[in-house]
Every structure is written in C-alpha cells, then in structure tokens.
Amino acid sequence: DAKTTQPTSMDCAEGRAANLPCNHSTISGNEYVYWYRQIHSQGPQYIIHGLKNNETNEMASLIITEDRKSSTLILPHATLRDTAVYYCMEGAQKLVFGQGTRLTINP
Amino acid sequence: DTAVSQTPKYLVTQMGNDKSIKCEQNLGHDTMYWYKQDSKKFLKIMFSYNNKELIINETVPNRFSPKSPDKAHLNLHINSLELGDSAVYFCASSQFRTLNTEAFFGQGTRLTVV
C-alpha cells in the first residue's frame, strides 16, 4: 500500500503556479521523495526527486520540509498540457503508486 | 529512440486464451518492472527483475509468468485469461544499484479480455 497521502483533486488556472502537497511521514532517512505524473492513460512520467534539499529542474520545483515528512511540487506556470494525475512516492526500488492528485488546469 | 517499448499496444482476446506482452528497454538499466492499471486507475506493481533475477513478486495469480531472457527484456506471459485481467499493463525500467534513480515507463498495453 502507498505510504503517502495526497489530495484527490486540485484545480489551477492556466499560467498560475500549481502547488501540489504530499505527506510522507513514514519516509526513512535514506529514501528519496519522487514525483511522477500520468497524462491521460499514457505511461507515468518522471518529474523530479529529492532527499533533503529543495530541487528544481526544467519541469518543476520540489520543496521538502526540514523534517522530511511532507513536500510540495510546484509547477511554476501551469499550462493545459499539465493536466494529469500527479503521484508522490517514497523510495525508488519499488515504486508504490497511491491514488495521486488529479490536477486540472483551467483556461 | 523509444526508451521503453511495449508490444502490442492493444490486445483483444477471448477468455481462456494464453497471451504474451513484450517489453524492451535500450537505456542500459539493470532492473525492469511490470505494473497493472485497472479500470479504477490504480497502478499496482506486479513483478520486478534485476539482472534477469526476480526480486519483487507481488500477490499475482500463478497464471502470470514473467520471463527475462536478458536484462534489456522483460516479457509477461498470461495463461488462461480471465475477464478480470482486462487492464492496461505498463513496463518500466530503472537502475537498481542506487536509490537516486528514476524509472522510465512504456506507453502501456491495453488488454481486453472478452
């Protein structure tokens, strides 16, 4: 079973920042936090991952709290193509997908 | 170049048949996975192979048998197909040795059992 909790759904206006929260209170010290997304029945797509420090890449930013029990994925300027289900996960060797957050970007 | 490719993309078959889904990755990864996504859209891991050895085997019926001829391929064979096997099956690969790695997924095989 998934060990992370995320809101079931969120809406965001196109061009605004989308902030997706995730709780991972059982994460162990050497486990990374991973974010993936799945766009309409395509294969899941890697977005970003981090251990302790905040991370940024061309797709998103990841903010991890100091106690590592939660994180926030930030899509700085959401577009309609960012509409997808976003999954937050602990670890890497066995990716356990929860229900994710269905993010809808509205025009 | 497609990193993780699955064939076929669509598969429609009758109950009781035996079918196979093939997966190949050209990323040089040493670990491959099979996931099942049912009609409720939950993604569940089924199997994982590392260097051709089974390392993860979730509670999956014995009718499902993965086969890894080499570390670039992981095929899924399903015997005596049932209606409940209808789902989208995703193959993925990653590098096992490090915890700091990302997984790449194929585009899925939509299996419909009639």
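Chain A touches chain B at residues 30-32, 34, 36, 38, 41-46, 49, 51, 85, 87, 91-97, 99 (CB under 8 Å).
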